[in-house]
Amino acid sequence: VLPCGVGGRVQVSLHFESLCKQCQIHVAAVRDDVLHGGLEVSASEAGVAQFLNMSIDYYGNIAADGTCESAANGTEHGPAMCVTDRYHLCAQHALPTTSAAPDATRWFQYVHCMFQNIDVLKCGSNGYCAEEPAFRRALDTVHGMCSSSASVDGDAIAACASGSLGRQLQAESYDRTKRTRRYGFAPVFIDGNYLEGADAFWRKTPDQLLYGRTLLEAICTAPESNQSAPACTAQW
User: Fold this and answer.
1) If you write DSSP's letter for every residue of the chain in order, what string do you get?
2) φ and ψ at 66, to 5 degrees?
3) Is 94 a residue whose pLDDT tops 60?
4) Which bin fits 47, alpha (ψ -120 to 50), beta or left (φ > 0)?
5) Most buried of 7, 14, 115, 196, CB within 10 angstroms?
């Protein structure tokens, strides 16, 4: 969880699994309702991306021998998820928010695309690819498409994900989510503070609009936010 007010922006810290269907719905809410809400009306007035810093951390377990999620092999939470986690994390690492590149969500376009193509990454089974070569083909296809559509360096992300840096980022991310497990699955933190209720409707009725509204309201009322932004003053 990152501290509050990084660079004069609202810090939004999310916790997901990279092959989770419910997470896919809520990532769509972040894009559609928080970052780009109202885009069809006015691009200059849409969403709240202009005053956000955002991060996503992931759930997983790395064994003492360095293997990842080997106990969950044969499920959607197995080693394939560890691989896609690294791709997501390497995109965040490669595209940080800086004064020269102030768009805090450049990496998110890639990650959003990866989430929205989970069915392909699971070989259409809503579970997992039964064969490793089939998963690798699916990953190459989706990663290539998402890199291109988001205008990011796909080769750099893939090199990071397959190397020591990707494994370091993964271990650090898993450690951060372990420290927040007392808040339940997929908590949200705004400026370092736990957002009550954002994770209360996950399993039975994943609700994209409710999740998006909950996040947007919390962001718009945070001290660092631009509370006069059209996205914050619109009637929902």
Assistant:
1) -PPS-GGGSEEEEEEE-TT-HHHHHHHHHIIIIIISTTTTT-GGGSSSGGGEEEEEEE---B-TTS-BSGGGTTSTTSHHHHHHHHHHHHHHHHS---SSS--TTHHHHHHHHHHHTHHHHTTTSSS--SSHHHHHHHHHHHHHHHHHHHT--HHHHHHHHHSHHHHHHHHHHHHHHHTTGGG-SS-EEETTEE-TTTTTTSSS---HHHHHHHHHHHHHTSTTS-TTSHHHHS--
2) 90, -10
3) yes
4) left
5) 115
Q: What is the pLDDT of residue 97?
A: 57
Dist CA 157 CA 136 (whole Å): 15
Could you report the per-residue pLDDT of 116-167, keeping only the tens digit for each? 999 999 999 878 999 999 999 999 999 999 999 998 999 999 999 999 999 9
> The tokens 């986690």 sit on which residue?
85
Instruction: Tell me the pLDDT tens digit for each residue of 1-35.
Output: 444 444 578 999 999 999 998 899 999 999 988 98
The rounded distance, in Å, linking the Cα atoms of 104 and 187 is 20
**Nearest CA-CA partner of 76 in 128, 124, 125:** 128
The pTM of the full predicted model, rounded to 2 decimals, is 0.89
Looking at the DSSP bridge assignments, the partners of residue 68 are 62
d(CA 207, CA 73): 29
Report phi then psi at 38, rounded to 5: 85, 10
Please give the Cα distance from 54 to 97 (Å, whole number): 9
